[in-house]
Structure formats: C-alpha cells, structure tokens
Predict the structure.
Amino acid sequence: MKDATKHRLRALLCVLSVLLTLLWLAFIFSNSLQNGEESGAQSGKVHKIVNEIAQNAGIEKPISEKAIRNTAHFGEFAVLSFLIGMDLWLLRLLQIGKDWQRSLLWGLLPIPACFLFACVDEWLQSFSPGRATQFTDVLLDTAGAATATVCFLLLFFIVRWIIQKKSPTPNDQKESINQLAVK
C-alpha cells in the first residue's frame, strides 16, 4: 500500500473514531435530557428485559432497577472512555514507541475528560422536569471511565510489550548483519 493511501486511510479512521465518540456522547446527553416520565419508562423496559434474561439464566432473585441504572451509568462512561482512548491512539498521542511515560499520561486523559462530561451530563439533567441530579452518578460515571481506561492501558502496554519482544533491537540487527558478513 502506498504511503499516501495509508495516510488517507489513517485520517479516515481518525475522523470516524472521533465521530463515533461524539455520537456516543450525544447519546449519553440525550438520555439526560429525557424528562422523568420518559426516563422512568425506559428504565422500566430495560429492568423488565434484564430480569427476564436473568430468570432464564436461573437467577431467581430479581435485579433492582437502581442496580440497572447504576450499571448503565458505569457502562455508558466506560464505553466513552474506551472510545476516547482509541481516539488518542489513532491521533498518535498514544504510541507504542520508546516514550511510554508520555503515552501513559495521554492514556490517563479519558478519566478527567469523562469526569467533566459526567458533570455536564448531570448539569443537563437538572433542566429535565422530574429528574434529579446526584453527585454519586458522577462518581459512578467516573468509576466506569477509570475502569475502562485501566483495561485499555493494560491492553495497550501488553500489545506494546509483545511488539517489542518480536521486533529485533538495534544490537540484534547489528549482530545479524555481522553474522551475514562473516558467512
């Protein structure tokens, strides 16, 4: 593949990734803009489906609607954090090269970003009739983001380690060149 084609493909992937992140953020914010009745009805439907699945799986005790709502907060922001991590990687702010400390700093960026988005999310919710804002929701959102960020970084550094193990070091390259020269 030509360099220009690779460059265009990478640019397209970056645009699509950032667009997906923005769409996910819009989804999160749209949930907060629902009024109390709409939000309650949506939660009720999800609650019913989850409990039916749990019953079919042999779980007899019903799962509370609060547990489902908390899991939704955690999960929404875990996905957002992962998407932001992918954006940073595609924008080459997270790199597999030697400067792992810089990559780690950039890799932690989704946590404070998601915290700020969670604060905005709760603030937006304050304008929705029949809805209340809770700082514990911000904490749940941030916990989801932190969990996903740690998982993303672990995966990132495992891949980095594997790549570095497989690729020869400059000394290995010199030795192999010297061995070829001897033969």
